[in-house]
Amino acid sequence: MIRLQFDAEGYSVICGTEQVILLAKEFALLRFLYDNRNQVFTREQLLDHVWPLEYPVERTVDDHIYRLRKKLKSWNTLRIHTVRGYGYSLTLTDVQRPIHPSLYDQEVQDAVHELFRKYHLLGQGNSIVALAAQQEQMGFELSPFYQMYTRFVQADILWFLEREDFALKDRLYWMLLLYTGTAGVTDEGLSMCERALSSRLLSSDQERELRILNILEAYVENGQPERAQEGLPLTLMVMERDDLDKFVMPVALMEMYMHLVANHMEKAAELSDRLEGMLSKAPYLRELGRYRMMRGLMLLRTGDVDNAERLIDEGLDTLDMGKQELLKIKAVCQIRGFLKLCGISPMLEEKYAARYERLDRNNGLTLHRSALRRWLEQTLSGV
To answer: CATH 1.25.40 region(s) of the chain?
Structure first.
């Protein structure tokens, strides 16, 4: 096993022949995590151990973890993991992994992949994350798609920024949706979607999904529901041609949102009834949470603020139950944009602004947004 050498006088750490100079608190944080490796600590626990008798905020831990990861990036055998919704842990990865016969059993690998696929369909991000965490113990290989999807549902922007072992084109689609889903209304986000469509960097499936769904929703979010309406016939044609049953509810939710923004209440109500019927047969957590939120937005249009707030919160709680962190962030962004458009309730605007700020702190959205934007700009440059 590798060993780190710590020099407390110069705040330096040596791994093999490489030395890194740290700041005092970075040094203390790394040493504590190293001395207690393979254990998970909350931000509060790390504050108590590394900043005793001081009063920093929890964001201080996130900032120091971010800087440590950058400074120790070349040390591939050392990893500082984010345990979503809890805290951090440090592991050393050069210990020989146990050999599982199941790694070489195609039937087991196929069965696990099918389980991931089913959880994905059902919108159970919580089950996907839990299963992925058991990879070593259960002895299966996580496909590149589900390596990325597991981090995507958790809105783990930093993971995508750091994973240079995945090619740019493999990360582009996920990082584009992370940016547009967490930044709120931005013209540049919409522009990036349009540039990505003409870039030829996306896979055929990714390009199709961006064209028939994601960019239409981006038009609505940016106050251009008429452009989404113009693109809808192509979406319906492609869905029928390619037999895309899995897109039926997501597209219906996007269309309902489009009509709510355009204040076409009869059409929004028709879609609401249609979605009720679909969800009664297939109550997938991801779509159920988004539908409840959309129903709340519909009630806002009618002036029923109290019931609207209840339904919106039920929708967000359902997304939270399914560990759909990115969709929860995106939903809060949509709620805030809709409230601003309607000008209905300053109190609700304040409430969901505060909720976004909590999500921002917990997920480092502002902290990583500029780096994410730069990465996208560089990848799409020349397109």
So the answer is: 167-380
- The whole-model pTM stands at 0.76
- Third-level CATH fold of 4-92: Arc Repressor Mutant, subunit A (1.10.10)
| Structure confidence by residue, pLDDT tens digits, 192-227 | 999 999 999 999 999 999 999 999 999 999 999 999
What is the CATH code of the structural domain delimited by 167-380? 1.25.40
CA separation for the pair 93, 97 (Å, rounded): 9
Alpha helices in the chain, H assignment, sequence order: 24-35, 43-50, 58-71, 106-122, 125-132, 135-138, 144-153, 157-162, 168-182, 187-197, 204-209, 215-221, 225-242, 248-262, 265-281, 285-302, 305-321, 325-342, 346-363, 365-380
| pLDDT-flagged residues of the chain (< 70) | 1-2, 55-58, 85, 94-99, 185-187, 382-383
- State how far Cα 20 lies from the chain centre: 31
Q: Is 8 helix (H, G, I), strand (E, B) or coil?
A: coil
Contact 305, 344 (CB under 8 A): yes
Segments of the chain assigned to CATH 1.10.10.10: 4-92
What is the per-residue DSSP string for 135-164? HHHHT-PPPHHHHHHHHHHTT-HHHHHH-T
Q: Residue 121 carries which side chain, given as an amino acid letter?
A: L
| Cβ neighbours, 10 Å, residue 24 | 10
* Residues ≥6 apart with Cβ < 8 Å to 234: 211, 212
Structure tokens belonging to residue 135:
């990879």
Rounded CA separation 152/139 (Å):
23
Beta bridge pairs of residue 18: 15
